[in-house]
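User: Could you walk me through two proteins back to back? I'd like the raw sequence and the structure tokens for each, with a short line separating them so I can tell where one ends and the next begins.

Assistant: Of course. Protein one, sequence then structure:
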Amino acid sequence: MTHVSTGEAVAFWILGSLAVIGALGMVLARNAVHSALWLVVTMLNLGFLYVINQAPFLGFVQIIVYTGAIMMLFLFVLMLVGRDASDSLIETLRGQRVAAILLGAGFAALVATGLARALEGTPTAGLEAANQNGNVQGLASLLFTKYVFAFEVTSALLITAAVGAMILAHIERAKGDRADQVTRMKERFLPGNYPGPKPGPGVYANTMSVAAPARLPDGNGTENSISPILPVRELTASEVAPKGTEK
């Protein structure tokens, strides 16, 4: 049995505990973005565990590829779909939540038991020969010689999945629905459209009533400052006339 140093044991318990906390936060978080960020915490700790166990290539792949690229893709999809979209809490099948929890726990126990029985008393073989020139060099040699076909098929599968996601998310628009900046500018300044911010009640006004139109710099009242739900109050002659011109 390989001797485990005190530093490795301490790092395992610290990083392992943080990874478990991140996994629990991912499952228990109600917000999808928060759940994804908790998963980032778990993946970072797994990457550090790989590096501590003398597997720097797997550790950096875990951090750069999974934590960096794939999790950013997850967050992009969440933002694209809408993070405020919540699933319906109405169960279409009675007891499906309890059944899902029991089946998930049973499946986890089955996988853990199978792995424990398969790895118990099984010594590692072939690691020294594969890592004799270094971990990164050994993995690169295996990937591009013995497992090159599986590696290329996996890369093609990922590219196909990315292209399929782009096609599914693409929305075809007719040419008439596409408006350039010049067209949008002309539509903004059409008669009836107010190009600038609307003046609020009380601006250049002699009253505090929100039902009284605000005055423009030339002294005339503007109905754009009145909310559509409020009736427009009739202005007196002194209120309509510009300041300093009352007779």
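----
Protein two, same layout:
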Amino acid sequence: MQEVAEAMSRVANTVVAALAEKLTGHDVGAAAFPPGCDEMTCFFRLNRYPTSPIAADTFGLVPHTDNDFLTVLCQDQAWSNDTYKSVEHKVVANAKSDRLSIAYFLCPSYDAFIGTCGEPSPYRAFTFVEYRSKVQEDVRRTGKKIGLPNFLKRSLVQ
């Protein structure tokens, strides 16, 4: 597991460097983008979704977007100023066998400032812990995650 986590970390850092270069037009290096991300803030998750005889109607995980900066997923965000967005996805159960997934989440530290790579930014300044807290509040209040629209300078969220 340690070897897989380390390999996924290398993949994440390579992808991050490519995303940063595309956004900024020059090589900024994986360590510089996004600020505050390092091995101490990342995690590796193994998921098991049991079989279900009514698989087509059974969610293993409801539709959602991920909260981290980058998810590397092996299976069968505001820094980019909305150039790259987390795609809503879901997990549907399988009728014949358990469904397994392995995910590596590259996350900033909780006190990391979330700022865009360019101006003008549609978002006000916020930290990752503010973002995570607001997502949890959204889910408690509405049953779903609202996410970045909460941090727009001209909020669309009431």
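The mean pLDDT is 78.

Let me know if you want the two compared in more detail.
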